[in-house]
Amino acid sequence: MSHYQNDIQSHARPGAGKPPMAIKVRPHAQRRDDAWAAVSAQEPGGDAAAHEPASHDLSQRVARVGIIGATPTGMALARELLDADIPVTVYEPARETLDAATASVRSACEASRVAGELTPAQRDRRVALLAGTINLHHLKDCDVIVDAMGAGTDVAGGLVRRLNELAKPGAILMACAATCDIDQVASLARYPENVLGFHVSDAGAAQVWEFVPAKPTSASTVATAAALVQALRRPPQESATHTNA
Looking at the whole model, is its pTM more than 0.85? Predict the structure, then answer.
C-alpha cells in the first residue's frame, strides 16, 4: 500500500497569487474499511468534472468555520476562507491579540481595495463575514472548528471537553496532527467520528493539505474537510454553497 491512502489533487482554479493545492489522506494503521474507498481521486485525464474527488457526494454543507487561536496560521486560513466567501468566527482568549488580528484582516482588505484587487462591496463583505470572540461558546454554530493554536494533547483534552458541551452534533473538529495524538483527541470527543487531524505544508509551488484520520474518523468527515479546502481555490460565486446540503 502507498504511504497515503489517497492523493486527491485539487483542480480548483487558484485565486490571484495563490499556489495550486494538493490533498493527501494518510491511512490509519489499524483501519481497513471499505468506506474509505469512496474517498479517492479520479484517474488523471478527461474533462475538469472528472477530476473532482469521488468523495464529493459524502460531504456535508459548511456554512461557517470556527478557528481556535488568532495565530498567524489561524488568521492566514481565515483570510483564505473569507476570500472564498465562507463566514469565519475566530476565537482567541487574549483580547489584545484578537483585536490586533482582526484589525490586520480589515487593513489587508482595505489595502486590496486600494490596489484594485477588491471592489468596495467585496471589501465590505469580507469584513462582515469575519467575527472575533473571546467566548468559546460563540463557536456553537460552526460546522467545522479548526484548532490553530497547536496545543499539545494535555491542553487539547480540556478544549475537546468544552467543545463537547457547546458544539453542534455534526461539527467537525480539525486538530493539528503535529502537536497532538489524533486518536487520543478522538477518544475524548463526544462524536469521535467527527475528529480529523491535519497538516499544511509547501511542496515546491503547491500547498499540500495532509489529513490524518483517527481510527473512528468517518469518510464523510474527510470528504467534508476535502471539499472545504478545495473551496479555498474556487471563485467566491462557485463556493457560495461550499459543499452539499
Answer: no
Choices 3.10.20.880, 3.60.21.10, 3.40.50.720, 3.40.50.1220: CATH for 6-12+56-234 = 3.40.50.720
Distance CA 52, CA 41 (A): 7
Phi, psi of 71 (to 5 degrees): -85, 165
Q: What is the pLDDT of residues 125-143, one digit of tens each?
A: 999 999 999 999 999 999 9
**Chain segment 18-46, per-residue pLDDT in tens:** 777 788 888 776 655 544 544 544 333 33
DSSP per residue, 63-102: --EEEE--SHHHHHHHHHHHHTT--EEEE-S-HHHHHHHH
Which 3 state secondary structure label does DSSP give 183? Answer: helix
In angstroms, what CA-CA distances link 184 with 28, 55, 157, 199, 231?
Answer: 14, 26, 8, 17, 29
Listed ranges 4-13, 33-42, 51-60, 127-136; the one with the highest mean pLDDT: 127-136
Q: Cell numbers 463537547 label which residue?
A: 164
- CA distance linking residue 38 with residue 40, whole number of Å: 6
What's the CA gap between 151 and 157, in Å, rounded? Answer: 9
Separation CA 150–CA 172 (nearest Å): 17
